[in-house]
Amino acid sequence: MNLKGRDLVSIRDLTREEIFYILEKAEEMIPFAKGEKKTKALEGKILATLFFEPSTRTKLSFETAMHRLGGNVIGFSEPAMTSIKKGETLADTIRMVDSYSDIIVIRHSLEGAARLAAEFAESPVINAGDGAGRHPTQCLLDLFTILREKGRIEGLKIALVGDLKYGRTVHSLAYALALLGAELIFISPETLKMPKEIVRDCQELGAEPKSFTNLERAIKDVDVIYVTRIQKERFPDPTEYNRVVGSYRIDIDLLKHAKEDLVVMHPLPRVNEIDPEVDKTKHALYFKQAFYGVPVRMALLSLLLGADVK
Ligand code: CP
Fold first, then answer.
1. Can you tell me which atom of ligand 1 is nearest the CA of 61?
2. What are 41-76's pLDDT values in tens digits?
3. How far apart are the C-alpha atoms of 265 and 274, rounded to whole Å?
4. Is there a catalytic annotation at residue 58?
5. What is the rounded distance in angstroms from the CA atom of residue 10 to the CA atom of residue 211?
6. Do 98 and 39 lie in a common domain?
7. For atom 3 of ligand 1, which residue has the closest CA?
């Protein structure tokens, strides 16, 4: 399978076979991601990271991935310090960066920004999150986490909880889980339900997602609970945010209603959705999940750049 030169703007850009291929490669990257093995597979290559929105995990794990592969990184996370501040368009910025680098990672507040970047760049473009739209590399690492910890995805009962309207990670993940045959449960406040078009896409893939507002009742027999932050920055009206903030909180008492081997995931950052007491339990997987961003992004960078990692 050859992914050299491809863009990754949406998880829909990948087939089921391509997703599993990337996840297999990610497994091979683990000793490199931990620094136990060394490689110069991407020596001489330059990754450009263009972060128009804040990030900790995505930006740093992409940078770590590139460094672990022997490549170099340029980029910005303060667009106010670039010529965008002087009125330069995104298209012109991308044209410039394309001539300085071999692969581009972009995070932007506007849905569609990564697709536009991919149209203007010759090099591969990876979407690191576009507004409330998509977050395909988070999706890949979420799938990798589930596969690694549960041994399969097909047939698992997976609950996506929280802000399903504005949360881009769950938009990508719902589609991918439906594609890979998981049983989907959506738990959210009435006003933050999964967008209809994503529910429809999941149904077209053969899934029959069930929607609930009550977490306690729905959690009983799930295998994975994927919790999300209420995306305060995407609410047009702060009153509406105040109405739903704190709707769900995973704590030790709630976990008493859950299966013994339930795993709790979260793309992070968390605010108050998961009690820190849960961190010490065998259910907590979110920090390991964040680490898996490194091998998954290493796999992706090496595949899109056509490098063989040995
Ligand atoms: N999960 C995630 O995208 O985290 P960051 O916003 O810190 O990159």
1. 8
2. 999 999 999 999 999 999 999 999 999 999 999 999
3. 10
4. yes
5. 24
6. yes
7. 58
What single DSSP character describes residue 8?
B
Closest CA to 3 of 30, 22, 29, 26: 22
Q: What is the CATH number of the domain that holds 111?
A: 3.40.50.1370
Concatenated DSSP letters for 41-55? TTTT-EEEEEESS--
Q: How far apart are CA 96 and CA 9, in angstroms?
A: 20
**% of the chain exceeding 90 in pLDDT:** 90
Instruction: For residue 6, tell me if it sits in a domain.
Output: no
**In which domain, by residue range, is 127 found?**
11-135+293-304
**For ligand 1, which residues put their CB under 6 angstroms from it?**
55-58, 129, 138, 267-269
Same domain, 274 and 229: yes
Alpha-carbon span 73 to 48, nearest angstrom: 6
- Distance between terminal CA atoms of the chain? 17
Catalytic residue (one of 45, 57, 59, 229): 57
pTM exceeds 0.90: yes
